[in-house]
Design goal:
Helices cover 5% and strands 40% of the residues. By secondary structure, it is mainly β. The protein folds into 3 domains: 112 residues, Immunoglobulin-like, CATH 2.60.40; 101 residues, Immunoglobulin-like; 141 residues, Beta Barrel (L,D-transpeptidase catalytic domain-like), CATH 2.40.440.
Length: 387
C-alpha cells in the first residue's frame, strides 16, 4: 500500500499578475534515491518584490489542491484577515496592503503542505492624518457628534467612509456627513438620528491603514476612540425673552436672565441647535478676531464656546443693565458672574444649546462648531458619501 505524503507548497517567484499561475499538476520533483517523487504545487501572490503597490488586497492562489489556511502578517505584528474561496484555490485579504510595509505570507494546504512568501509595499509619497473628537475615554453630552478633521483633502470620500465603523452599546442609528471644516480642511461627522441616550457607550474604529484618500495621500495607520454619553441635559436660550434655561432629565434646573447679540447686524447671535464645544474658563476676547474691528478687548470669565466664529456663553457683568430686557452684546450670550458660574459648573462638553428667537442673524451652519443638528435627518444623511 502506498503511503500518501503531505505535499510541500512552493511560492511562485516573479509572478506576473494573478493569471500567471505556475502549476506542476501531474508532474513530480526529481528524486535522487530512487523513491517515488513527491508532487509539487506552487502558490502565487499578487503582490511581489520590494516595491509592490499598496492599496490592494493580498491574493494568494493555489495551482492545485485546496488551501486550508493563509496568514499574512506585517513587520509590526499586525495581521491581515481574509477568507479562502469556496473552491479552495485562492485566499483574499479583507483589508488592503498599506504603504511602506513588509508582509510575510504563510500558507497551508489541505494535505498538510506549507509554503511562505514575502513582499514589501512602496512607501507613500504623501501621508494623510486626522484629528478625532471627542477625546478618548471621555464623557460628553447628548448632542456631541463624532468628528474627524483630515490634514489633507479627501477625494475618495466613499472609500474612506466605508472604513469608519461606529459601534454603540444600544445600536444607535446615525450617519456620517461630510463638510468643509471652519479651518478649511475636509471633515466628516457622525451624529445620531436623535440626541444620544444617556449612558450610551460609543466606539469608533477608523480602519484606514492602506486606504488612499486621493490627492491628499495615504493613511498609514488605524485610529480608534471610545467615549460615553452622560446625563440628559439641554440648555435652552430664548433670544426674544432674554432667558437661558437649564433643563436636566426633562426638568428645569435653573433659569437666568441674559443679554445676547444686538439684532440687526453682524453682532446678532446665531439661532439653532448648537453643541457646547469647550469650557475655556477665563480668556481674552478681542473683537478683531471675529471681524468686529476694535469694539472690545476684554478678559472674560466662565467662557463656554458654542461656535468657531466666536459665539460664547459667558459672564458679562458690564452688560448688567440689559440682562432679561434687551440684547446688547457683540454676539455672545452674556449673564451675571453668579449665573455664569452656576451654568459653567453644571454643563458638560457636548450638551446641546437650543437657541430660538427672532433676534438672530440666521441659523448656525453645520461646520461652524457642531451645527449638524440644524439639518433634518434626511438632510443630514444626504451629506454622506454613501447614502
Amino acid at each position: 500500500m502506498n503511503r500518501i505524503r503531505p505535499r510541500p507548497l512552493l511560492a511562485a517567484v516573479g509572478v506576473l499578475g494573478l493569471s500567471a499561475l505556475t502549476s506542476c499538476s501531474g508532474g513530480t520533483t526529481p528524486a535522487d534515491d530512487g523513491k517515488e517523487a513527491t508532487p509539487v504545487t506552487r502558490i502565487s501572490v499578487n503582490l511581489t518584490g520590494e516595491r509592490a503597490p499598496a492599496g490592494e488586497p493580498v491574493v494568494v492562489r493555489l495551482a492545485e489542491g485546496r488551501l486550508a489556511r493563509v496568514e499574512v502578517t506585517d513587520s509590526r505584528g499586525g495581521r491581515l484577515d481574509g477568507k479562502v474561496a469556496p473552491d479552495g484555490r485562492s485566499w483574499t485579504s479583507a483589508r488592503k496592503a498599506a504603504p511602506g510595509t513588509a508582509y510575510a505570507v504563510a500558507a497551508k494546504d489541505a494535505a498538510g503542505g506549507s509554503a511562505t512568501a514575502a513582499f514589501t509595499t512602496a512607501r507613500a509619497e504623501k501621508v494623510n492624518k486626522l484629528t478625532l473628537a471627542p477625546g478618548k475615554d471621555t464623557t460628553v453630552g447628548i448632542g456631541q457628534p463624532l468628528s474627524i478633521v483630515f490634514d489633507h483633502p479627501v477625494k475618495n470620500r466613499a472609500e474612506v467612509e466605508k472604513q469608519l465603523v461606529v459601534t454603540t452599546s444600544n445600536r444607535t442609528e446615525g450617519s456620517w456627513g461630510w463638510m468643509r471644516d471652519w479651518s478649511g480642511k475636509d471633515r466628516v461627522d457622525w451624529r445620531p438620528k436623535e440626541y444620544w441616550k444617556p449612558g450610551t457607550r460609543v466606539t469608533l474604529d477608523a480602519r484606514l491603514n492602506g486606504v488612499d484618500s486621493g490627492s491628499g495621500g495615504w493613511f498609514v495607520r488605524d485610529y480608534t476612540t471610545t467615549f460615553r454619553i452622560g446625563r440628559a441635559q439641554v440648555v435652552k436660550v430664548d433670544l426674544d425673552r432674554h432667558r437661558l434655561t437649564l433643563v436636566r432629565d426633562g426638568a428645569v434646573v435653573r433659569e437666568v436672565p441674559v443679554s445676547a447679540g444686538t439684532p440687526g447686524g453682524e453682532k446678532a447671535s446665531w439661532r439653532g441647535r448648537t453643541v457646547l464645544m469647550s469650557k475655556e474658563g477665563t480668556i481674552n476676547m478681542r473683537s478683531e478676531t471675529v471681524g468686529l474691528g476694535d469694539a472690545y478687548d476684554k478678559m472674560v470669565d466662565y467662557s463656554m464656546r458654542l461656535t468657531w466664529s466666536g459665539m460664547y456663553a459667558h459672564a458679562a457683568p458690564w452688560n448688567a443693565a440689559y440682562f432679561g430686557t434687551a440684547n446688547r452684546s457683540s454676539g455672545c450670550i452674556g449673564m451675571s458672574d453668579a449665573d455664569a458660574r452656576a451654568v459653567y459648573d453644571a454643563v458638560r462638553v457636548g450638551d446641546p444649546f437650543e437657541i430660538t428667537g427672532s433676534d438672530a442673524k440666521g441659523t448656525q451652519a453645520p461646520n461652524n462648531g457642531y451645527g449638524a443638528w440644524n439639518l433634518s435627518w434626511e438632510g443630514w444623511r444626504a451629506t454622506s458619501a454613501l447614502d
